[in-house]
Amino acid sequence: MDSYTRQVNFFGNTDPEALVKKYGTPLFVYNEDILRKQMRRVAGLLPNHRFTSNFSIKTNSNMTILKIALEEGLNCDAMSPGEIFVLKKAGFPSERIFYVSNNVSEEEMQYAIDEGVVISVDSLSQLEMFGRLNRGGKLSVRINPGVGAGHHDKVVTAGKKTKFGVAAQDIPKIHEIAQKYDLHIVGLNQHIGSLFMDYKPFLEACHSFLHYAEDFDELEFLDFGGGFGTPYHKLNDEPEFDIETFKAELDKLLTEWKATTGRDVLFKTEPGRYVVAESCVLLGGVHSVKENYGHKYVGTDIGMNVLIRPELYDSWHDVEIYRDGKPVTDGPREVYSVVGNICESGDIVAKDRELPVTKEKDIVCVLDAGAYGFSMSSNYNNRLRPAEVLITSSGDDVLIRRRETLEDLLRCFDV
Ligand code: LLP
Q1: Pick the catalytic residue: 76, 280, 343, 365?
Q2: Residue 64 CB partners (closer than 8 Å, separation 6+)
Q3: Contacts made by residues 312-315, CB under 8 angstroms, sequence distance 24+
Q4: Residues 28/386, Cβ–Cβ less than 8 Å
Q5: Is residue 193 in contact with ligand 1, taking CB distance under 6 Å?
Q6: Is 227 a pocket residue for ligand 1 (Cβ < 6 Å)?
Q7: What is each CA distance from 347 to 100, 129, 300, in whole angstroms?
Q8: Which of 210, 237, 270 finishes a domain?
Q9: First and final CA of the chain: distance in angstroms?
Q10: What SS3 class is residue 236?
Q11: Backbone angles phi, psi at 312, to 5 degrees
Q12: Whether residue 109 sits in one domain with residue 52
């Protein structure tokens, strides 16, 4: 089996061994070319329409990555005041930020109003709250089209069993509340879920969403959400999300809608994972190799505090082994569980994987770690959050986030 990272020359002028010597492990390593290529793909999704793509920064809010998104012409969606704050620091003006709020306090809603970003509300009660705080204001409402999709129940964000959005049958109530506070519903948004490789449920949801939109006279934009998948089983040749066919089908749907309704609004999408997942690998050090009652383990420093997706959603991440700066692709293989250093028996990055026979001091390279990797990392067990490095388009490595220090663990205490 050849190495994916070698095929795409992921590490440019350097290699995992040199990177680990310089920056330590665990280490998130990004490739600028892959990142920009994905950003351009989403930015160019609907060339025949008025269109902007938002990058969903919950997937990754590294300052350098946000600045690249800004350069590539992406707008962003934010899910919290913290995300708005960071986007502003990265240079995004308010009009390029969309706040997709969910169960926020009055203070948080007021913060977003004061920052001048367009807000989407997620329920009738939050619509009332917005009305009380900002009578006469403009906003968007998140509609739950009744259809969801995603790689796991925990990431399906529309349909009849989720907390998100206003149910379609409550649309008349949206109008009543808007009238009461003289609000202008200038946008509608939806997000059906995360990581679908089949775009048909998404198109089906867009179809109903467009139908609901016809009930709103003041619309300036419609935001269809994100969720476009990336192949996590690339070592087994899983095909990519078919963006070209998706693009053509979505274009057709929107062209027809514009022709039959005579409406012309700005269309938006909100992909996160598709933009950033494949641009990053996570390097970990192998500190032990052991056998317990017939099960073999590769003991690394990639604990669930660093990458929690496998533990939370049983997510699959492909794994490569590097030794002396090169991927190990030949020789004998063994079945191992690749585990971390956290005090939990569920701390397993990759369970029962056939890998090259692995030794202490090898480097484990976990693929597709750019989305919901660092952004979901934590200090559990008082472990330090890792550093992040970018392999630039010229092939050089640049530190884009320093590793935490022990002192960082004390920053919220008076000691
Ligand atoms: N827009 C909204 C309103 C969202 O809630 C999300 C993700 C996105 C856009 C971006 O979705 P994407 O294109 O990245 O699929 N932590 C989970 C995924 C949670 C997704 C939450 N919402 C994971 O690691 O798979």
Answers
A1: 343
A2: 390, 398, 400, 401
A3: 312/154, 312/376, 313/151, 313/152, 313/154, 313/155, 314/152, 315/151, 315/152, 315/232
A4: yes
A5: no
A6: yes
A7: 32, 41, 10
A8: 270
A9: 52
A10: helix
A11: -80, -40
A12: yes
Q: Which atom of ligand 1 is nearest to the CA of 100?
A: 3
CATH number of the domain encompassing residue 51: 3.20.20.10
Question: Among residues 208, 202, 207, 200, which one has the least CA distance to residue 156?
Answer: 202
Range of the domain at 93: 46-270
CA dihedral 199, 234, 11, 64 (to 10 degrees): 30
Token pair for 362: 């090898």
Q: Whose CA is nearest to atom 8 of ligand 1?
A: 226
- 32: nearest Cα among 68, 75, 76: 68
Q: Are residues 260 and 299 in the same domain?
A: no
Write out the two tokens for 180.
């009461």
pLDDT value of residue 224: 97
**Relative to the CA of 273, which ligand 1 atom is closest?**
14
pLDDT score of 120: 98
Ligand 1 pocket test: pick from 39, 58, 232 the residue with the most ligand atoms within 8 Å of its Cβ: 58
**Number of domains, the chain:** 2
pLDDT interval class at 267 (50, 70, 90): very high
Nearest CA to ligand 1 atom 2: 191
Query: Looking at the domain assignment, is residue 38 inside a domain?
Result: no
Indicate if 69 and 156 belong to the same structural domain. yes
What is the crossing angle of helices 81-90 and 63-71, to 10°? Answer: 60
Q: pLDDT tens-digit profile of 335-362?
A: 999 999 999 999 999 999 999 999 999 9
End residue of a domain, out of 270, 293, 309: 270
- In tens, the pLDDT along 86-143 reads 999 999 999 999 999 999 999 999 999 999 999 999 999 999 999 999 999 999 999 9
310 lines ligand 1 (CB under 6 A): no
